Amino acid sequence: MPPAAPVEQSRTQPPGGLLAVRSIVDLIGNTPMVELRAVRDGVPEGVRLFAKLEGFNPGGSVKDRPAKRMIEQGIADGKLVAGKTILDSTSGNTGIGLAMVGAALGYPVKLVMPENVSVERKKVIGAYGAEIVYSDPMEGSDGAIRLCRKILADDPERYFKPDQYNNPANPLAHYEGTGPEIWAQTEGRITHFVAAIGTSGTIMGTGRYLKERSRAIQVIAAEPEDAFHGLEGLKHMASSIVPGIYHENELDQKLGIGTDDAYNMVYRLGREEGLIVGQSCGAAYVAALQVARTLTQGTIVVIFPDFGDRYLSTNLWLGWQKLP
Amino acid sequence: MAQVRIPTPLRKYTGGAEAVQADGATVAALVADLDKRHPGIRERICDESGAVRRFVNIFVNGEDIRFLQNLDTVVKAGDEVSVVPAIAGGR
User: Fold this and answer.
1) Buried-most residue among A67, A156, A306, B57 (CB within 10 A)?
2) In Å, how far is B1's CA from the nearest CA of chain A?
3) A52 plus A71 within the same structural domain
4) Residues A189 and A314 both lie in one domain
5) Domain range for A264
6) What is the pLDDT of residues A279-310, one digit of tens each?
7) How many CB atoms lie within 10 A of CB A183?
8) Predicted complex ipTM
């Protein structure tokens, strides 16, 4: 299948005034926000907590945004042309986003990921027609990054590597999308923005936009409290290859979250709020509650990067300990 | 002696070694011995109650111990035991 028309053109609606978009990629972004009113744990009444539900993106996660933006930029720059394959390392959600956008626009996709990512992710990526190369699970995401670099070095002309860890289009997707959406959805009343860090694209781009609107807005990152953790998709910065797009000086605060606390929060959000989400949402919300308890007034927006159905086969739900 | 493969984040306990030797007739005994040789590593693998942490997977010769006899799974000389975090990190 030849590459489709440039993305800009696909943004237009189909002819005839039909209430539909031309491509699935046109449905990325504009995700809804929900107030969390049950899981508050002593947060003062004057503090409101909102979750932006990125699982409503068509590929099921926040990563659809940078996937689309990085591919658009690659096409615009002439780096992604017919005949090239999109190649990147990813532990899952970005891979799903790239596989979806690649399929919709007609580019083949090859993804390098640690063998221990969840089976649902592997199957979804396969269903989009993308090829998966597995890296050593003992090496984590850094092992996938290194293997991906090698594949690229062996045949550089064959691939377009979006490079989500270093591509400015990753945070730009959030600067142009997530940030303005949150500003509009809260009618400018947001006081604190909380997001967990993987590549850091979400918090960098969204935080940058929000601080431009109001310097008083606090930008708070949640990260695993330790290098050895069970929070799929998140990075413990001190022990990881630090992404080029990550600028710690743009954060007001960084909170370390324990895996057990994040998992327990996921169970509670399902039972008390009716939200089945992934473990990174649990981590981000634990951090949001920590921040909320220090305030008397405020509007906190926390990013929920995905829903939980793609983790049902993982230790989050299949651990051998009895669930609380 | 069994060979134990150590994931990157825990290699600070093994002096950077990717694989180390440990002794024990079961996984529980093996983890205890591992901790004698590399103090502190056990509490990263197991919680306060002694159970394997929820996000940690242990494989004996490639088989997940949760589908065997968990911490009572028998370990023989020459077996390969892998400690693998359930996640990958980075999206």
Assistant:
1) A67
2) 21
3) no
4) yes
5) 15-56+178-318
6) 999 999 999 999 999 999 999 999 999 999 88
7) 20
8) 0.82
